[in-house]
Amino acid sequence: MDGLVYDIIVAAGFGLFGAVLFSLVGLVSGTDETATIAPITLLVVLLGAPPAGIFSFWMAAAVSKHMTHAVPTALLGIPGDTMATPLLQDATTLRNLGVPHIALRKMISGAVIAAFVSLPLAVAFALVLAPFGQTITQAAPWLFLGAAVLIAYSSAGRFASVAALVPFVVIILALQALTGQYNVKLGVSYFLGIAIGPLIADLFTVLSPAERKRMHRDNLRQFALAPDVKSWGGYFPNPFKVLDRKQAQWTAGAAGITSATFVFSPVAMAVIMGELVGSRIKHAYHRITSVLAVRNGVTESTYIAEALIPLIAFGLPLSPVAAGPAAPLFNAPPRFTIDTATGTVNNLHTMLTPLEFLGYGLIAVVLAALVAYPFAMNYARGAAAFVSRNISHEAIVSTFVGLALVIGLWEGGFLGVLVVTVMGLVGGLLYRILNFNPGVQFMGYYTAVLTAPALIRLFS
Amino acid sequence: MGHRTLGTPASSPPGSAALPASDYDLVEVWNDVVDTRHLLWSVIIGAVISVGTFLIAERILASVVDTPAIAKAYAMLAGVLGCIVSGVVSALLFPPKRVVIESTNDDAWRDQIMRDLAENPNTTMSERDLDPAVIREMEELGLRKLFASYGDGGANAPAQRKE
């Protein structure tokens, strides 16, 4: 029992760390979840945190960031990250009505309820799928090819993304061959390059005079910050009082259904479920607030399901979230590896039982609900104002440039830095021009690592 | 007081709309606005502090810690702390290129939104079939009268206004 008690304490400690850290990160508008959660989780893995700690860290981080990214979305009218985009219109409507705090509270109360509903359901769905694990693992190279094409097609780039997969995979293979000549094998550097590609591409383009003209802005960026009204006593709000009974039911129902969908994007599911619920509500105000609660609940539940179902059932990153923000839970060489040639998976999938996933996941969700939820409900306005007034974007650029260089140097010396730069520039430009987004690029990486060797074996 | 360090534009009354920001050379990078010179310095600061910390830590730890893999992992941790330090330094040196306006509820915006909502054929402004809890919520927010005034068809549209 001592071992269990120790693991629970470790899970709670790392969960608390993740919840606090990413409650703050979420406030910085426009911080992409893949660019922030993936590299930090990677660090936690590589620095040797115990499996229970890694999982609860990631889970608490994801749920907390999802809560606080609603703050810039609702109060400043700019999406906290890509998942917040389907909520922007309704949130802006409430902001113009002078009640942006209501948008925020409906959103994150929906998210709290959804997180608690979807965690046990996602574990249950994973158990249903688990018996097919062995077959799935053997077919992994082809599944990844299929998933890459599917995820590419469902991205905004459509066929451009599907077509771009081929040269993109070739670039990765070429870089692997290059570093292989010096006996350097890289993994993390590719990830990091893809994750912060948009930044690297922008730093290159701003050096080009013609492009700089296009990026030029005449004015400072303007934000209108709305006033706040607090409507409950004490520190801890009750989500079931913030949402009315119908909204809580709709949110829980939608979260339950979408806990089973682990291959579609959270944004797509949020749009669909929002329309479904919205069409059943006639009154304009009630419809807006209900749709906000449901949509934010659905991005939460889909996110959890997309990470947990492939992780628990197969140990293979077969969904956009698993291949993106949750990627280090699957693959973080040298500690976590996926080898399809031998069919061996060595990551959290093999280190934790489904019951442990459920237990440590629950600890993480509770911590996020205790840290991020009341924080966002109580201090949203002050926090948003502090960040926009005091943390310059240059400071964030500085941090991530440093991170790219340190991780590159650490993994592969000068070659590592080169790989981060090449992947970032190519990936970032393809994203901007073709909408070949980082999620698709991660799948491209897996295709290069897993499918390409199988293809070559097939034809030799 | 916030930032009174280098680069603060001389001609910028706080809170005024659409600042010309003549002292800055503004560009949009990674979804936000930065000044090109500040950007260059922030990249240099990020590179020098983070890489410097990492290389120094690697050198020191290699001689102190027995296991090379662990020494390397801790060197990376030191490098990551260096990244955060470089972020703090840049935040202290370079002010944000944003203007935050305390918005007052603008009636023009609200009327526009209410007209749009009233015109949507799929929704109604009428309280018929509406849960008492929702009506209470709208009452508390001062929105009940506003929505009712745009009620079915919006015949007597902006007649009433909440205070």
From TrEMBL, chain A:
<feature type="transmembrane region" description="Helical">
    <location>
        <begin position="442"/>
        <end position="459"/>
    </location>
</feature>
<keyword id="KW-1133">Transmembrane helix</keyword>
<feature type="transmembrane region" description="Helical">
    <location>
        <begin position="357"/>
        <end position="376"/>
    </location>
</feature>
<feature type="transmembrane region" description="Helical">
    <location>
        <begin position="250"/>
        <end position="273"/>
    </location>
</feature>
<keyword id="KW-0472">Membrane</keyword>
<protein>
    <recommendedName>
        <fullName>DUF112 domain-containing protein</fullName>
    </recommendedName>
</protein>
<feature type="transmembrane region" description="Helical">
    <location>
        <begin position="6"/>
        <end position="28"/>
    </location>
</feature>
<feature type="transmembrane region" description="Helical">
    <location>
        <begin position="397"/>
        <end position="430"/>
    </location>
</feature>
<feature type="transmembrane region" description="Helical">
    <location>
        <begin position="107"/>
        <end position="130"/>
    </location>
</feature>
<dbReference type="Pfam" id="PF01970">
    <property type="entry name" value="TctA"/>
</dbReference>
<feature type="transmembrane region" description="Helical">
    <location>
        <begin position="187"/>
        <end position="207"/>
    </location>
</feature>
<feature type="transmembrane region" description="Helical">
    <location>
        <begin position="142"/>
        <end position="175"/>
    </location>
</feature>
<keyword id="KW-0812">Transmembrane</keyword>
<dbReference type="InterPro" id="IPR002823">
    <property type="entry name" value="DUF112_TM"/>
</dbReference>
<feature type="transmembrane region" description="Helical">
    <location>
        <begin position="40"/>
        <end position="61"/>
    </location>
</feature>
<feature type="domain" description="DUF112">
    <location>
        <begin position="16"/>
        <end position="432"/>
    </location>
</feature>
From TrEMBL, chain B:
<feature type="transmembrane region" description="Helical">
    <location>
        <begin position="39"/>
        <end position="61"/>
    </location>
</feature>
<keyword id="KW-1133">Transmembrane helix</keyword>
<feature type="transmembrane region" description="Helical">
    <location>
        <begin position="73"/>
        <end position="94"/>
    </location>
</feature>
<keyword id="KW-0812">Transmembrane</keyword>
<keyword id="KW-0472">Membrane</keyword>
<protein>
    <submittedName>
        <fullName>Uncharacterized protein</fullName>
    </submittedName>
</protein>
